[in-house]
Amino acid sequence: MSFDSFCRLYDNEHACAEQMYQDKWPEGFRCPVCRHTQASVIRTRRLPLYECRKCRYQASLTTGTVMEKSKTPLVKWFRAIYLLSHGATAVQIANAIKVTYKTAWLIAHKIRHAIKQIIADTPLTGHVRILESRYGATSFAAQFSTRAVHHPLIAAASVSDDGKMVHVRMARVPASHIFKGIVLKDAYQSFILRHVASDADITATYGLYNFARYKPLYSFSRDAVRYLNQTYCGVGLKHLKSYLDEYSYRHQFASLDQSLAAHLMRQCANRPALPYRQLIKTAA
């Protein structure tokens, strides 16, 4: 679906609220407090409230979603979700939905937080290949320059029987797992605990220049770094994982029968918001 078609489909708050209801409660209303299934609708506010007929709790459509406590209209949220699912930057989102850059940046990071939770909920399974990569300048000369700054990454992929990548995960190696520029094996173990199923068949190659590495995965990681450099002119370490997750998410769910935007909209309707204090705190 094109962006213009998407905008026509969700061109007002009522249409967006109807879709939010379907995404949040696909089997009908369910009280978040007592799990009762009947509610009265209160329409005196911008968005309807659903008052449970049993415990009288008033549930908002946006409570427990990435939009919680946001004053930005749902129409603009929906369009931002569509645009980010297609790789748009905060500047492009700000221009498209007519908000400030700061608002677009915050919306984009809240959506990426939902993506982060999707990634965390789907560990790699089956045959998993793991290797070391790095984030930094991607030109041939820069890769061998002593002045260029590079940050080690761990990349992993679940691989199908015919040798193709299915799902990919990437993460920055924390400083505590690096000794004199060398990535310690503890970094791999920590990554595996976070991103790989306990029963997976794991093949790990250690060292950046290990020629036994799984070449499609290494190429994918380099493409991701090149994309971040070209699109954002580089990404700070604090938010690097979020951008890597977004890139991996688009690869992982690109083959879905439904649109990527529709999948992300449903996820955003069922994932809690990222607190601002957590967003701006310094990464380890």
Question: How would you describe what is shown here?
Answer:
The chain folds into 2 domains: 3-120, no CATH class; 127-253, no CATH class. The chain contains 11 helices and 9 strands. It has helices spanning 3-9, 13-24, 74-85, 90-97, 101-121, 140-143, 185-195, 215-232, 237-253, 260-268, 276-280; strands at residues 39-42, 49-52, 58-60, 127-135, 151-159, 165-172, 178-179, 182-183, 201-204. The strands form 3 sheets. Strands 6-5-4-9 form a 4-stranded mixed sheet. A hairpin with a 5-residue loop joins strand 5 and strand 6 (165-172). Helix 4 (90-97) packs across helix 5. The longest helix has 21 residues, at 101-121. It is elongated, with a radius of gyration of 21 Å.
The helix-and-strand class reads alpha+beta
CA radius of gyration is 21 Å
The percent range for strand residues is 15-25%
How would you sum up the major sheet? 4 strands, mixed
Number of domains: 2
Oligomer: single chain
**Biggest sheet, strands in spatial order?**
6-5-4-9
Describe this protein with a few key phrases.
single chain; 284 residues; alpha+beta; three-stranded antiparallel sheet; 44% helix; Transposase; Transposase_Zn_ribbon
